[in-house]
Amino acid sequence: MTKFSDLTRLPDARGHFGPYGGRFVSETLSFALEELEKTYLSLRDDPDFQAEFDRDLAQYVGRPSPLYHAERWSRQLGGAQIWLKREDLNHTGAHKVNNTIGQALLAKKGGKPRVIAETGAGQHGVASATVAARLGLKCDVYMGAEDVERQKLNVYRMHLLGANVIPVESGSRTLKDAMNEALRDWVTNVDDTFYIIGTVAGPHPYPMLVRDFNAVVGREARRQSLEQIGRLPDTLIACVGGGSNALGLFYPFVEDDEVRMIGVEAGGDGVETGRHAAPLSANAPRGVLHGNRTYLMSDEGGQVLETHSISAGLDYPGVGPEHALWKDVGRVEYVAANDSAVLEAFRELTHIEGIMPALESAHALAHAKVLAPTMRPDQHIVVNLSGRGDKDILTVAKIDGVEF
Amino acid sequence: MNRIDQRFATLKEQGRTALIPYITAGDPAPEHTVGFMHALVEAGADVIELGMPFSDPMADGPVIQKACERALKHHVRLSHIFDMVSEFRRRDSETPVVLMGYLNPMERMGLHDFAEQAAGSGVDGVLVVDMPPEEADEVAPLFKEYHLQSIFLVAPTTSESRAATICAHGEGYLYYVSLKGVTGAATLDVSEVDRHLEPLRRLTSLPLCVGFGIRDGDTAAAVAQVADGVIVGSALVSRIADNCERPERATEELKALLSEMRHALDA
Ligand SMILES: Cc1ncc(COP(=O)(O)O)c(C=O)c1O
After folding, report:
1. B266 is a domain residue
2. What are chain A's domains?
């Protein structure tokens, strides 16, 4: 028992994490969510299901992913040792696949012939299209029209995988609008369709099951730390969009009081400018969107605000409800990294370690860059390198003024 | 007695079906809403559902999404909507008004302030699309305190045990969503609707009103055979969309469509 043991027992039976979470959906979806919850709870502790999940993670995703000591970068920063949890090496290039493997198994058990997904950076869309291809399921992916533009490579990847990408023109034409459209599709086709949500948001039971499927990241990192460092790390850092890679890393450490955890949100042009996607760091008001209550960027009339970030995968006005609670109880600190610092970290890791991070993950790196020099060389930071940067090459090239 | 209960009691005595139009407040511009409401009453509306525009109307199809966008261009806020209802009440003290929308704007205003001001302006009921009864713990007592009736949705996918919960919490009328989908979707199968309403009748004495997919006199009359009320939204809102620059024309078209439905129901 530690100070934070209670946190491991959430959500409660109604999907609440303290005042957050829940199931705020129109009635048509209630039944589907109840069914999903029942299916998941019956399979969660089923050894056969777990064995199938573990086998897929090992043989198809390539887990465990390594914990890599970025020695050269650590030396250059002149402080703590930085270790990278290499989710970028997973099949399809990000942590997102851990969750899609799990949800695809649920879709299969539920006998649904069609899956849908929302995507921002396209990583979750690619991961969904991938598992759909493997299981022979029809796959439609909703993607904000602006993201279709800035993540062209992933859009084409999804096409090659046999998925249909549907650009969403409503609202701010980014991730939140893609999620609205996916929910509308699901309401309409709920009989034959499984909705694979890509992050720890959405109505209960999604925040719980997406967390559980990604917690493999933290379980491995914890074990690897003990083996490779000889003890638990001092600090964990992960980027936070909806928050699935961060929760995946943090969750298995929640009762290790001595391990500090930092979530890094998208600071965009700077939290003080209002042009960001950092609801926790900016202390956004409490709100309800996409089926859960959380910190939500909205104006005084309660209309959801447009967000700004260099990275499509973090461009979201809310955040998973469990993060909202972890902020309130002080288990995790939340900070923001601005676009310019993110680009710098992206370039630095690429040059110094030969590892090109996703722009999302570069948010976590940007904060490691700030924090490491304030720590001693015998201290250790584990950074979740949630994805690889191949998909962002066109974005960075454009900033560099290079055209193909 | 609440205006909604009063109205349904009268309709029952007369053996008539309720006609419930929906429009989005502030669409295409705030100054037209009250005029539209009066026009709808003249054309035979029994209850008016007034949409509270939201940036992310997840349960709505393209027609009502665009209506929200038009209203939000004018920065329509809940306080403006209460002003509209107050103004409507100056000439109409009888027609029940139900606000319909999403939880976030209400929470941001403060649920207590919302309930107090809604009731003060003459609102009779509230339907929060993304708040099923399980999540209504905070809202329900406030609405009770201010005599606002909580209207809930029932869907084709609602299980019998859920339906019982909903019926236990619901007031005014039950809004039966006639099909799986968002507002503005096309097809509607009356015998299917009947099959679902049947068990609800055993659970509740609340009037059962059917919405989604009703767009003209024929569909209204068909649904009226099995329901106590018909709700029409997207069909009306698209008349407004077609005539954004010509509000008089929009008023005429709203009246024409609603009269057609009224006649079909009363025939
Ligand atoms: C590589 C990568 N990291 C992080 C994220 C953000 O999502 P989350 O906060 O759920 O981990 C994304 C989303 O697309 C991503 O592609």
Report:
1. no
2. 18-56+96-210 (3.40.50.1100), 62-93+214-399 (3.40.50.1100)
* Span A282-312, pLDDT tens digits: 999 999 999 999 999 999 999 999 999 999 9
Task: Output the pLDDT for position B73.
Answer: 97
Overall average pLDDT of the A194-204 stretch: 98
Structural domain of B129: 3-261
Helix ranges (H only) for B99-176 are 103-109, 111-121, 139-145, 160-169
Q: Rounded to an integer, what distance in angstroms lies between the CA atom of residue A249 and that of residue A313?
A: 17
Residue B208 scores a pLDDT above 90: yes
**Chain-chain contact of B166 with A27 (C-beta, under 8 angstroms):** yes
Q: Is-contact A334 A313, C-beta < 8 A?
A: no
Q: How far is the CA of A124 from the centre of ligand 1 (A)?
A: 8
- The set of residues, in sequence order, having a beta carbon less than 8 Å from that of B36 and lying 6+ positions away, is B23, B240, B250, B251, B254
At A118-155, the pLDDT tens digits run 999 899 999 999 999 999 999 999 999 999 988 889 99
Q: Is the predicted pLDDT of residue B12 greater than 80, yes or no?
A: yes
In chain B, how many domains are there?
Answer: 1
Number of inter-chain CB pairs under 8 A, A vs B: 119
Can you give the pLDDT at residue B181?
A: 78
pLDDT value of residue A256: 98
Distance from CA of A179 to the nearest CA of B (A): 9
A85, A96, A369, A391: the active-site residue: A96
Residue A378 tokens, joined: 């015998």
- Is there a contact between A31 and B108 if contact means CB atoms under 8 Å apart? no
| ∠ CA B65-B70-B74, rounded to 5° | 135
- 8 Å CB contact of B158 and A22: no
Q: pLDDT at position A1, please? A: 64
- State the DSSP code for B184: T
Of A23, A180, A289, the CB nearest to B132: A23
Is there a domain that residue B162 lies in? yes
Question: What residues in B contact A184, CB-CB < 8 Å?
Answer: 58-59, 61, 182
Nearest to B49 by CA among B128, B158, B139, B144: B128
Task: Give me the CATH number covering residue B30.
Answer: 3.20.20.70
- Looking at chain B, the whole-number percentage of residues with pLDDT higher than 90 is 93
Q: Of B58, B117, B158, which to mutate for an interface test with A (greatest number of A Cβ within 10 Å)?
A: B58
**Of ligand 1's atoms, which has the minimum distance to the CA of residue A200?**
10
Global ipTM? 0.95
Question: What is the whole-number distance in angstroms between the Cα of residue A159 and the centre of ligand 1?
Answer: 21
Q: Label the pairing between strands A20-24 and A16-17.
A: antiparallel
Flag whether B267 is in a domain: no
In the predicted structure, residue B180 carries a pLDDT above the cut 80: no
Rg (CA), chain B: 17
SS (H, E, C) A331-376: CCEEEEEEHHHHHHHHHHHHHHHCCCECHHHHHHHHHHHHHHHHCC
Whether B105 is in a domain gets the answer: yes
